[in-house]
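Propose amino acids for all 174 sites.
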């Protein structure tokens, strides 16, 4: 079959039935994921766009990720404004590997500051749990226990936990 050049980037290294190379098709998928209803990509998400376009390995894997991954749906919710673009918003979602993966992805791309996501999750859970304790004495005791016994296990506030590739790919399952 004849080799046609990509109509976007001009590469002619492989047959192109759709006239676009796989790399340009991938970049288009990233742009569609990150484009808001206004037709623009939020400037805060440009680092994520660059990360997804440039750091990906395996275009077929990424194609499946865009169509099936919960983390892609979480990012889309952030794009359209249904979810704040923050680790705190992610921590309020049900604890799944997808929320851990999304947090690690946003941190790796530089969209949100590096932080200890497990601690942020713990703080969100504690706030909800303590709000449900109606007895003020019991609430005070539970808060003290959390402050002195539980919270120190999650490092000091503001100390980021290094997210390695395994955690990013498998999410946080703690």
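Proposal:
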């Amino acid at each position: 079959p004849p080799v046609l050049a990509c109509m976007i980037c001009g590469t002619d290294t492989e047959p192109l039935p759709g006239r676009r190379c796989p790399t340009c098709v991938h970049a288009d998928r990233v742009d569609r994921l990150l484009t808001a209803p206004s037709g623009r990509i939020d400037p805060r998400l440009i680092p994520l766009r660059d990360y997804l376009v440039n750091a990906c390995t395996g275009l077929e894997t990424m194609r499946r990720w865009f169509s099936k991954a919960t983390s892609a749906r979480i990012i889309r919710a952030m794009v359209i404004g249904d979810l704040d673009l923050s680790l705190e918003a992610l921590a309020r979602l049900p604890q799944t590997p997808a929320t851990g993966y999304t947090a690690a992805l946003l941190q790796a791309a530089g969209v949100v500051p590096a932080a200890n996501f497990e601690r942020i999750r713990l703080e969100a859970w504690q706030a909800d749990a303590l709000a449900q304790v109606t007895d003020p004495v019991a609430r005070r005791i539970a808060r003290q226990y959390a402050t002195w016994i539980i919270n120190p296990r999650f490092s000091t506030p503001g100390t980021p936990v290094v997210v390695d590739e395994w955690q990013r790919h498998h999410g946080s399952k703690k």
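DSSP finds nine helices and no strands in the chain. The mean pLDDT is 81.
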